[in-house]
Amino acid sequence: MKLAETSNLNHARLPISTPAPGLTRVAEGGCLPNAFYTDASVFEEEKKRVFSPNWSCIGFGKEIPQAGDAKPVTFLGIPLLLLRDKTGRIRVFQNVCRHRGMILVDEPTNFRGVIRCPYHSWCYSLDGELKTTPHLGGPGRNDHPAVTKSELGLYEVRSTVWMDLIFVNLSGDASDFKTATKTLTERWSEFEGQRVYHGGAESSFSLTVQSNWKLAIENYCESYHLPWIHPGLNSYSRLEDHYNIIEEGQFSGQGTTVYNPKLDDSGRNFAHFRNLPQKWSTCAEYIALYPNVLLGIHQDHFYAILLDPLSHDRTLERVEIYYTSPEMTEAPWQDLRQRNSEMWKGIFIEDIGVVEGMQRGRHAPDFDGGTLSPVMDSATHAFHAWVASQYSGYQA
Length: 396
What we know:
The protein has nine helices and 18 strands. By secondary structure, the protein is an alpha+beta fold. It is globular and about 75 Å long.
């Protein structure tokens, strides 16, 4: 096999204090305990320890393509507003009026002027500044000395956009995004700076999975299951063609040296990214960027799966597929885009049964988290180690 072999999984020994029952075993090559999948209170703690301090993906720039476009989203129960301001910059605000906490925007829309609260008509600019407060000081009096409008702008959430993915740092104190993803962007440096173009309606789909969000990541990280769960994929990209990808504390996943699906009998192919080294003519990589986005990169397209944890045992997977040029998004290529989307959707659907089966299995009282293969599961263990580290303050 071409997988990097390791004699054990002790490469991620973590100085766990006493954060949660069972986490000390992760440092010895073990897995996360059942409660991390079945206990709603652990999920509530994850919101604070795992998601809030890190860069989490919450949406895609293609959802708000024009200046003034706004889309409300709820992430981990928090009402947020994706907004493209007049300069074209994407910003994220908490989707609540500073007056009474009313939700400002219920449906995707385009603002030509201001954002108006539907409750008492307080109005905000697209920069989030509070502009008008009708009748604040009584009928016909729109100001009051006790209220300073310049201090009552919308709460802005620290955000950034990379490869059209919108990331937020809810706590506001993570290292800057470029620093946090430096190793990944260096690994994929050939693609850095190249634009991607969303494939349109047929390149967007969602799947709801009755499982904890972490199981989706764990399954994605390893190629061990390919022969049994993905026989079609394994027919041309075999288990032995895969290798592990591990960057402690940041991301993990797998790659293949043989990526060659046949989407069209006539031999048509999507345009490639520019100036790629020869290795990418057959290579593809699939990486889980912690905490909640799954990435797939190929010479001719890129996809992202946003994992939206709806609860401790239910996850929405939002899949978006991008191409290398505007021409690839036009009508003559629609049939090929459709086949590509159907191929990936079929593969991801094949995963649902095992991910949901593992979720049900986590209710077995004597199951201790499992026994990992030192060779085949090292990328999954790296993710377990990272989650455990968020409870101890340890940074890999």
